[in-house]
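Worked example 2:
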Amino acid sequence: MNVRRTRLVSGLILLTYLATHLLNHGLGLISLDAMEWGRQWFLLLWRNPLGTAVLYGALLTHLCLAIWALYQRRHWRMPVTEMLQLTFGLTIPLLLTVHIVGTRLTHEYFAVDDSYTLMVLTLWHASPMDGLRQAILIIIAWTHGCIGCHYWLRLKKWYPRAAPYFLTLALLIPVCGLLGFVDAGREVSNLIARQPDWLERFLIAAKIPPRSQRAILTQIYDGVLITFGAAIALALLARVVRSLVERRSRIRISYPNGLLVQAPRNFSVLEASRLANIPHASVCGGRGRCSTCRVRVSHGLASLPPPSAGELKVLQRVGAAPDVRLACQLRPSHNLTVAPLLPANAQASDGYGQPAYLTGQERQIAVMFADIRSFTAIAETKLPYDLVFFLNSYFAAVGEAIVANGGIIDKFVGDGVMALFGVESGPEEGCRQALAAAQAMIAHVDGLSRALSEELSAPLRIGIGVHCGPAVVGRMGYGETIHVTAIGDTVNVASRLQDATKEFHCQLVFSDEVAMQSGQPIAGLPRHELTVRNRREALAVFAVEDLGVLART
């Protein structure tokens, strides 16, 4: 967690420096004098003891963490954006060193006035290839920073709404900076053409030292590159040694559908998945932040080390069960059986904080089933287009009533709907919400029936069944079909009560449990004993045709 935070903070400092640098460049669209004016504020911010320490400290820290990340990586199989960010991050020092030596060090060693005019003169007029290299450096560094910010911010709930504005800034800032540099270059070229002695006077005023005195800068440049190359070589060599050691001891990680991976001991589960080309979600790239790589451990949980403070914080954020771990942080030393909980194409929103029940919990809830009476006869008289329009109108009518009363629409099947109530608020409130939703549904369907009276041979009627009891609730399904649902005997009973509306010739049947939990007065309501499959005792239910009775009792 501390490493990730340090990488983030140092990266933000460097990106801020680059952004202010590019904004200063952008003033070249006004004039060269505007660039020099902006440079005064730029130097005030960065070229002071504190600014210098913060900037170069962040640069050195970020570079060391990049080499450390290179060592930590177990293999090279990764998403394209992750590979791009890693490649750009290791390329930046090669291009940045010459710029630092040519500006800050020449100023410190020889008191050279490294003004924007001098930089433009050098990179645009004297050495266009160096100017091109500098433009490439800016694009690479800016892209690297933007990718890092995207990985960081995409886990924030507000980010999808703000992303278009961030993208606009990410494009405008470098484009304006590069165009400002081009305009400044043209202005310098015009000065040289109009004033033949301008160049000589400017170089004298800038205090450019002779080439012989600048040899020390070349030595510094070569030394930095050699040191950087040696650090990378050592990191790669250490990886090879570690890999040879780890390959002597392997463990088996079992996945669903009989997939088995032989991985070196202490590989993370995510690394094992990628090593075996098993699709595995990881929005944050394995940094332990998004939670989309989480897995349920069904065998070997006792042999695992406890989650770190960082991993535990993420697991608590999504309400994970005790047998759920982050695949990117889990490094087993014994055989393990796991099952990824999210599809490989999971989005950043799947890593947002979620209620605990989404991972699977038994809860006391109210379940509702409803469908249209005599729907087959209605469907036979309609063309396909008219039937789809009719069903969508019906689903909108009942769906609005369910959601408005605090329910969760589980699914629409044919002309039927299943809904859950009290998943978060509890059974008492859930049962009251379900009965209120039933009243609203019948009222909405009556309104729809009147609106479509010319197309219907008889008024629409629906049958609704509501039961309350224990059910297993969680996000279930596969791929895009994953949604919150419930399974268990309570669901089966609610479905049976909906069927019973045909037997009792009414629009609503609810169980005695619903009446007790909701506090609904039942005096005067028709009471029946209903036999339900897989239940030994008959179930007491109440059949209601006039839902106005519920409102009056």
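Residues 356-552 form a domain with the Alpha-Beta Plaits fold (CATH 3.30.70.1230). The chain is about 55% helix and 15% strand.
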